[in-house]
Design a protein that fits this description.
Layout lengths: L6 H12 L10 H9 L6 E4 L8 E12 L6 E5 L8 E3 L5 H14 L6 E3 L10 E6 L2 H5 L5 E4 H9 L3 E8 L5 H16 L1 H5 L10 H8 L1 E3 L2 H13 L5 E4 L1
Helix pairs in contact: 1-6, 3-5
């Protein structure tokens, strides 16, 4: 949950913890799968790419972290057009974004010769693009000749929104728990404009537009369709049960 776009969820769960409804564990997205897999938590905000670690998952709540078009915080940067790129350096912190760029390269751009490397194994001398996610994107926007927003590229390819993470569990919780989560999440999302004003990121002047225009929290039917389509293309075989 330690990403900017999880702000309303974090606000809601901190309130629920204060009301002794739950115990909140804050973790990096890459750690959430391990916590759920080891039964250290009952419910997790799980990145789509991490679902491949599970045979079956229940998708909970009416909310997710997604986008319909530009997401802004998941981008490919390069000084070369994608058709000329020989190497893409992946982001070690995001399995979902790495799977998404590989899927787009294969199905959207139909490119077959690009190699994928992590930073420590990158090859020198190749025309290279770098995948960046999260708050790091804000720091390097508009510094490369070419920027590819992966939310937009997925929408161009599939005609669908994209879901980066959603709430899941290995067993379905009681309806009373789901109702309380939905109620509290909805309330925090509605007061998102005031939550944004509390953020310490002084170097980002347009966070309000980021939350209003780039991030979409409702887990509607088109987003569920997108999850299923992406998992099929990325060969993630987890059995998802939508509540």
């Amino acid at each position: 949950m330690q990403y900017l776009n999880a702000l309303p969820f974090l606000d809601a769960l901190r309130q629920m913890q204060q009301d002794t409804i739950l115990t909140l564990i804050e973790a990096k997205p890459s750690e959430c799968a391990a916590l759920l897999l080891n039964d250290s938590v009952d419910i997790a905000l799980l990145p789509i790419g991490a679902m491949e670690d599970f045979q079956k998952l229940f998708v909970l709540t009416d909310f997710c972290i997604g986008c319909f078009g530009k997401v802004r915080t998941v981008k490919l940067f390069s000084d070369f057009p994608i058709q000329d790129v020989q190497q893409i350096i992946l982001d070690p912190s995001s399995r979902s974004s790495n799977l998404l760029i590989k899927t787009l390269v294969k199905y959207h751009w139909n490119l077959k010769t690009i190699i994928f490397s992590f930073p420590e194994a990158a090859k020198i001398g190749l025309k290279t693009a770098k995948l960046k996610i999260g708050n790091d994107v804000f720091e390097i926007e508009n510094t490369f000749k070419f920027e590819y927003d992966l939310g937009k590229e997925w929408n161009d390819y599939a005609g669908l929104p994209f879901v980066f993470a959603c709430w899941v569990s290995k067993t379905k919780p009681d309806n009373s728990v789901l109702d309380k989560l939905n109620e509290t999440f909805k309330a925090s999302i509605l007061r998102l404009p005031s939550l944004v004003q509390t953020l310490p990121l002084q170097n980002v002047s347009n966070l309000s537009s980021y939350f209003a225009e780039n991030i979409s929290y409702d887990l509607d039917e088109t987003k569920k369709e997108s999850i299923v389509k992406f998992m099929g293309l990325a060969n993630i075989k987890t059995n998802l049960i939508f509540s």
